[in-house]
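DM from R.C. (forwarded with permission)

"hey, sorry to bug you on a friday — could you get me a structure for this? deadline for the figure draft is monday and I only need the backbone to look sensible"
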Amino acid sequence: MGGSTHVSDQPHASQMSEAHDEPDLLRDQFRQLVRYRALLVAGVLIGLLGGGYLAVSGKDTYVATSEVVLRAATVDEFAAGGTAPDKAINIGTERQTAMSNEIAKRAAKKLHLSARSVSALQSDLQVTNPPNTLVLRFAYTYTDPDQAARRANALAQAFMDARQEATENTIKNTVHNLRKQLDPVVKQRKELDEQILRLGEGPTLDAATTVQATLVGRISELSTNITRLQTLDTTPGKWIRVASPPAAASGPGLPMMLGLGALVGVAIGLLAAWVRLVFDPTARSEGDVVRALRAPVLGTLPRSKGGPLLAVDHADPRLAEEFRSVAFRLAYDQRFAEHRRLLVVAPRGGGDTAASVAVNLSASFAEMGMEVLLIEADLRTPGLSARLRAADGSRPGWARSPHLSEGGWPAGLQVPIDAGESGSFDLVPGRRVRNVARALTSSAASRLFAEADAPGAAVIVLAPAVLTYADALALADRIDGVLVVADPHAVHRADLDRVRQLISGAGSTVLGAVLHTSPGRGWWARRSRRAARKRNAAAARSEAAAPAAAPAAGTASAPEGGVTVATAATARTSLPSGDDTPAPTTDTIPLRTVTR
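My reply, with the result:
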């Protein structure tokens, strides 16, 4: 029984989980739609412009309304049974008659309009019937309020006249038919009266008298019907509302049209955003990244001017805490904790953000008491060492890896990097080589990666983008875990899926992803980045022009509780002479310090 109870509870738990997931999915979809602000704003502007144009360009129209209540012909309206029942009036037929061409012709004749105006007169008229009533409402729309009232009344009067005329004609025809029936009966009675005078007593007289009584009854019946018809009140109805010139134009005004235009514009914008969302190949959200990589999102870097940790004078404290959180999550990941080797890569594009993540994770691990070695495995466009501040002195790489690679990398040099209050870590800088694949798979490189096997040591490797070069795949089988750095708004879901397949095929595992937001691609964003680069260059020149102000050669002071920032000029003067890697003209990568 216990087993059956457990099985029966599983579908219920699954249904509860799906029920809780639905609001989250709706919120996520709504947030994704709101991302396309340009489409939403464009839709609202289109709606406002359309509503304003219709309100301004359209002529003011006035609606005049007259109402009549219909009645059937009756002998005595106040006598019992004197009024015909309501079913004698077919209100639907009367409404169609009121909108007919014949009524329009009558009204045009009363208004002294030409025959060409009949169709316009008919098209501008609207006749309605309030439910459960015998009322007809004549509403006429025209640009002149006086003319609208005159024409509404003329059309209603034309209908009433036509209805009364039709009733009178019906009565006249009926009376005529009854008289045609009465005349032969009267003539027959006169002849019978003459015969009765000549007859004597007997059966013949009795028969003639009986026929005479029948004829008298028939004559009385026909005469009564004729008299009743001739005394009918043929009034077709009565007016309950006479149209008067309207004081204000009909239809929505400018505010109403703008409001309606805004609502329509929002609908258009949402529809355009939905279509854009359906055909958007990018990852769009954390959920799409998790589904594509089949790995968790370890952190999301907050938006920063000019991009995350690039072209800034001091790191954002939120960024520092985010890197610290990512480092702790990795440290407590069993897959990383066993071997402590991490490959940091991006799917496509440049590696500025991936380099920032690798450097700041190295500082975070150093703060946690680990002996960190950061390896720049970018042997095509190296330049990380020129952007970091070296600590006092440098130690040769042969102290830890005595043999050099045949390909020229590693070059026998490990540079200590000052991470401020977080401590320091070692950097193996990259350098250009002829055969990248041979250098990355050399025995010297393998010994570098094996340094993570020492207790309390960690190795972080920075490689070029996975889908740009195959360098990361050559390292994946030697590195146990891969950290993917991506912008979900720029990378395609297919690219992330391909990255996962390539890394899995190479024998490694995706430990997680760090998401960021790339700097804007518009004109204003490019201008802001150029201005930031100019400010950094000016700061570097001023620092180089005043060396006495520096605390010591090759070091830079960090603000209390802030970020240690190294300029390109400081880094170049601090590098050993044995490193011939040219310094790139890229922005400085700042290292954070954590206030204790």
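R.C.: lifesaver. The chain is about 50% helix and 15% strand.
me: no worries. The chain has a mean pLDDT of 76.
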